[in-house]
Structure formats: structure tokens, C-alpha cells
UniProtKB/TrEMBL annotation:
<dbReference type="InterPro" id="IPR011179">
    <property type="entry name" value="IPdP_isomerase"/>
</dbReference>
<feature type="binding site">
    <location>
        <position position="149"/>
    </location>
    <ligand>
        <name>Mg(2+)</name>
    </ligand>
</feature>
<dbReference type="GO" id="GO:0070402">
    <property type="term" value="F:NADPH binding"/>
</dbReference>
<feature type="binding site">
    <location>
        <position position="148"/>
    </location>
    <ligand>
        <name>substrate</name>
    </ligand>
</feature>
<comment type="function">
    <text>Involved in the biosynthesis of isoprenoids. Catalyzes the 1,3-allylic rearrangement of the homoallylic substrate isopentenyl (IPP) to its allylic isomer, dimethylallyl diphosphate (DMAPP).</text>
</comment>
<keyword id="KW-0479">Metal-binding</keyword>
<dbReference type="GO" id="GO:0008299">
    <property type="term" value="P:isoprenoid biosynthetic process"/>
</dbReference>
<keyword id="KW-0460">Magnesium</keyword>
<dbReference type="GO" id="GO:0010181">
    <property type="term" value="F:FMN binding"/>
</dbReference>
<feature type="binding site">
    <location>
        <begin position="3"/>
        <end position="4"/>
    </location>
    <ligand>
        <name>substrate</name>
    </ligand>
</feature>
<keyword id="KW-0963">Cytoplasm</keyword>
<dbReference type="GO" id="GO:0005737">
    <property type="term" value="C:cytoplasm"/>
</dbReference>
<dbReference type="GO" id="GO:0004452">
    <property type="term" value="F:isopentenyl-diphosphate delta-isomerase activity"/>
</dbReference>
<feature type="binding site">
    <location>
        <position position="210"/>
    </location>
    <ligand>
        <name>FMN</name>
    </ligand>
</feature>
<dbReference type="Pfam" id="PF01070">
    <property type="entry name" value="FMN_dh"/>
</dbReference>
<dbReference type="InterPro" id="IPR013785">
    <property type="entry name" value="Aldolase_TIM"/>
</dbReference>
<dbReference type="GO" id="GO:0000287">
    <property type="term" value="F:magnesium ion binding"/>
</dbReference>
Amino acid sequence: MDRKDEHVSLAKGFHKIKENSFDHVRVIHDSLPQSAYHQTSIATELFGQRLTSPFFINAMTGGSEKTAGINQKLAILARETKLMLATGSISAALRDPSVAHSYQIVREVFPEGILLANIGAGSTLEDAKRGVDLFNANALQIHLNAPQELVMPEGDRDFTQWLRLIEEITTNLDVPVIVKEVGFGMSRQTMQRLLDVGVKTIDVAGSGGTSFTQIENARRRKREFSYLSDFGITTVASLLEANEIPMNFELIASGGIRHTYDIFKALCLGANAVGISASILNHLLVNELEDTIALVQQWQQELISLYTLVGAKTTADLKQVPLLLSGENKTWCEARGIDFTKYSQR
């Protein structure tokens, strides 16, 4: 089986709705929200682009005939719901031009869309430019996935040039650059190092959703790395870490986003936008495309209600919503020297 197809199959097989760090974030209710549904906007902005929704379809797949069909459906979904869309890593197309169409199809289906290309952190500036040119991407995601690479039988083993290459791409590429994890989260130290080399948009992509160490371990003949299935920093902890950095930058939350309330909580925790992968992919794989379009439209309507519930007229207003952190989130804050009580005093 093609590796890209195998990833999709394993991701679907391992997907399940489970408790994660968002369950230990509670919104402190205000009985007098001073808001109106019809006056509420859920729009947001990233790298100078206005997004009509504060969530988008994050990087998933591409590189085979089967995944071309999935990307086609994702592009239709994005077009019909006006969502930003990222493809999976375009490295396969850089190696083999015959699979380029599995990525280019998103632009064919959604010519006016805000579309993101995705490339690995070990890629060169030339590869980055080729990736953007592949389907005229509006921005480039550079993914960090060291744990996945080490568990992957055919993965990379040398990460010494990653930061240098990220700096070179960020400095010289003509489109905005987003640096993202793939489900292992980020500490404030990691984010600070990225900001120091010029990165302006970071997707923390924390643990709590799809585990690529679990997926890659399942592909091994000997499954030595089962203890890394839950490895990483959770999405909530990563957002808390990001809020400790005394610099302004664009923050994206992804990893373990199950439904509208998780999107909402991530925005309250400071995210400018929220990326969703597995929840959308798995719904699409087991339901008709029209049903998934209806689900996303339902999420958009629910978000307007949630904004109204807390008195937020805009996405930026959510950063003032008081929150109570408990369980693993409180423990993380205590261990990392983060004042978790400031969130309840907003």
C-alpha cells in the first residue's frame, strides 16, 4: 500500500472521540453577556488575509490517486463553506511529478480559495518555492515532526539543519510562512527560537488527537515505540506556553479539535485561528460530502451562538473570556511556572 494511503487508513482506524486537555478548560458564565446574535462576527485574520470563519481545514493528505480524491472532496468542502484549506506534505510531488495533480486539484476545484502548501522542515528554499508554485499557494506551512520521523522506518534521522532552513525560507519566500507541529505541541522555548529567526505565524498542533508516532509504529515490523503513542505537549498546554511569550505573533491551535466547543475554547486561550484535520477527515470518510458540508455549516452557526453567549462581538474579544483551568492543565501550569489564576480573573 502507498505510504500516503496507509496513513489515511491508519488514521481512520485509530480515530476515536476521547477525553483530552480541552475537557479541563471551563468557561466562567456571565448571565448578562450584553450581546446580540445578529451583531456577532466570527471572522478572523491571518497573514493579512481575512477568514470568514475562525477555523480551517488543516494539512492532511496528497500524493496518490486515492488521496487526490480526498483532496478533491476537501476542496469542495472548503469552497462551499468558505474555509481556508491546507494540503498534506507536497514532498511526494517534489520527488515524483506524476502525483502533483493530487495537490493541484485543490486549486482547480477552489480557484479563489486561500490555500496552503505544506512541506517538511528539512526542505530547502528551492523546494519551498516549488511547493508554493505547485498550485499557486497563498502561504506555506513548514511542519515539524521529529518524533514521527524517528519512529517511521524510512524517516529522517538528522534534524541539525531544520532551524537554519526555516530561517532561510522565512526570510526569502514571497508568501507568508507558518511553522506547525504535527501533533506533538510546542514549548515556549521552541516558539521563541522560531520567532527569533523571523517566523511570524505558529501552529502549535498539540497532542490529544491523531498520533503520528502511533501510526508510524503500526507500520513497523517490530512495534518498539508503543510508549510514544501519547508523546508530546497537549494543545491547551501549548497555548498556555505561547501566552507566556512577550512578543506579538499569530497563533494557530490544532490537535485534538473534536467539535465547536473545542474551537471556541482554543480561541478563548489566545488562538487567532484553529486548524482541524481528523474530525473533518473521518466524518468525510464515513459520510456523504453533503453531510460534512452541513456539519461545518452547523459549526459556523454554533460559533455565532457561543460568541453571543459570552458577550463577544468579534474573535479578538474571546481573549477576554474568563476561564477556569483544572486537571492536567493546572498541573502543567504549576510545573512550568505559569499563573493559571490570571485566566479566571479576566
